[in-house]
Amino acid sequence: MPGTAHAVTGRVPAPTTAMATGPGGTGGNDDRSNTAIITRTRTRTKRPSLYRVLLLNDDYTPMEFVVLVVERFFNKSHEDAYQIMMHVHQNGVGECGVFTYEVAETKVTQVMDFARKHQHPLQCVMEKK
Ligand code: TYC
């Protein structure tokens, strides 16, 4: 109870400075001096950089194979996959999705491995947004 004399010393303890609590806060009370140190670390969240994963057109990869790739690795419906394939076919390049670095890198590797396994020259790349 603040303001009450200590039973042995007769001293009235100095009020304890507020203790920081919760995330990022630490409170420490030094009971010899009745002082407290408050530290507070700021919670800083950084949004991750995003990367587009792109397919490149070529003259040899079958259209149906590209549609399958877009469905399988980018979780698109058959209709959306067909539209993306046609966009790449007509424009030379097209976006299949936007991901954080490691996810984008994984998609590129999966597509390139799958194309190579089926002996198609399909190219997949990523670029920072
Ligand atoms: N141009 C290819 C063809 O006519 C089809 C194709 C589409 C290839 C998209 C690659 O990323 C691609 N068979």
Structural account:
- The protein is built from three helices and five strands.
- By secondary structure, the chain is α+β, with helices and mostly antiparallel strands.
- The strands form two sheets. It has a three-stranded antiparallel sheet with strand order 4-3-5. The chain has a two-stranded antiparallel ribbon with strand order 1-2.
- β1 (25-30) and β2 (35-40) form a beta hairpin.
- α1 (63-74) packs across α2 (78-91).
- The protein is elongated and about 80 Å long.
- The structure holds L-tyrosinamide (TYC).
Strand content: 25-35%
Low-pLDDT residue intervals, each spanning 5 or more residues: 1-29
Each distinct ligand: L-tyrosinamide
Q: N- to C-terminal separation?
A: 60 Å
What structural category do the secondary elements indicate? Answer: alpha+beta
Q: Could you give the order of the helices and strands?
A: EEEHHEHE
How are the strands of the biggest sheet laid out side by side? 4-3-5
* Helix content range: 25-40%
Record field, number of beta strands: 5
Radius of gyration: 31 Å
Oligomeric composition of the shown chains: single chain
* Mean pLDDT, all residues: 83
Number of helices: 3
Reported for the largest beta sheet, the result is: 3 strands, antiparallel
User: What global shape is seen?
Assistant: elongated
Pfam families: ClpS
Function: Involved in the modulation of the specificity of the ClpAP-mediated ATP-dependent protein degradation.
Keywords: Hydrolase, Protease
Family: Belongs to the ClpS family.
